[in-house]
Amino acid sequence: MQLRPLNQSDFAPFGTVIECPLPPTTTAFPTPPPTSFNVVPANQNTALKFIDVTHMKNRYETAPSDVPAKAVMNMFSCFPRRPPPLPPTGDDIADLDMKVLERHPYTTQTFIPLGDTREVKPKYLVVVAPTLPPTSAPAFQVMGPPDLANMKMFWAHGGQAVTYGAATWHMPMAVIGKERMDFVVVQYANGVAEEDCQEVEIVKGPQEKL
């Protein structure tokens, strides 16, 4: 997989990147406010409100169980994994300790990092895969398995949140470096395990396979 910085253009097929477009040097209310974004002044001109920065989706009405879902907000404390040293952007990375991919078939899932947002350096990895057609299912563990041949990998900094689109295959959170990262995670859930989260194991070999 080729490593690249997380950005909305490349990530668009899989979800949304959420990050403030203001430079870190903006420490006072800008006059005039920026007009290139969907933004309005707020809190008596002491804040800017960026509107509709990501889209939450609840598709549980199509789930087989008919159990309704509710919006849930959890916190994950994620500890560093042991990936190989990250190559320069645009180079390939090998030997990443990736044991499973998962998806949430009926909901988006947003990871919002807590902590310093100003340091633009790799803090966590975002690994995603397209979905193969359901007709490929007999040889796999689930309907619509991940397309391992076309996985994408991005590095993200602490000022970027990410929303995985509903049913998007992704690697569980992979924090890199030496420090723990805490994330608030927002999604819908109905408590039915196979509807809230589906996983596939990845078997290591000459070529990765399910």
> For the terminal residues, how far apart are their CA atoms?
17 Å
Question: Secondary-structure element order, as H and E?
Answer: EHEEEEEEEEEEEEHE
Beta-strand content: 25-35%
Identify the quaternary structure here: single chain
The residue-averaged pLDDT reads 87
Low-confidence segments? 136-140
Helix content: under 10%
The helix-and-strand class reads mainly beta
Largest sheet: 5 strands, mixed
* Shape designation: globular
Tally the helices: 2
Would you mind describing this structure in some detail?
- The longest helix has 4 residues, at about 10.
- The chain is about 5% helix and about 30% strand.
- With about 210 residues, the protein is mostly beta strands.
- The two termini are about 15 Å apart.
Key descriptive features of the protein:
5-stranded mixed beta sheet; 4% helix; 210 residues; mainly beta; globular; 2 helices
Fold topology:
Layout: E1 3-5, H1 8-11, E2 15-19, E3 39-42, E4 47-50, E5 70-78, E6 100-103, E7 109-114, E8 124-129, E9 152-156, E10 160-164, E11 169-170, E12 174-175, E13 181-189, H2 193-196, E14 198-201
Parallel strand pairs: 1-9
Antiparallel strand pairs: 2-10, 3-4, 5-13, 6-14, 7-10, 7-13, 8-9, 8-11, 8-12
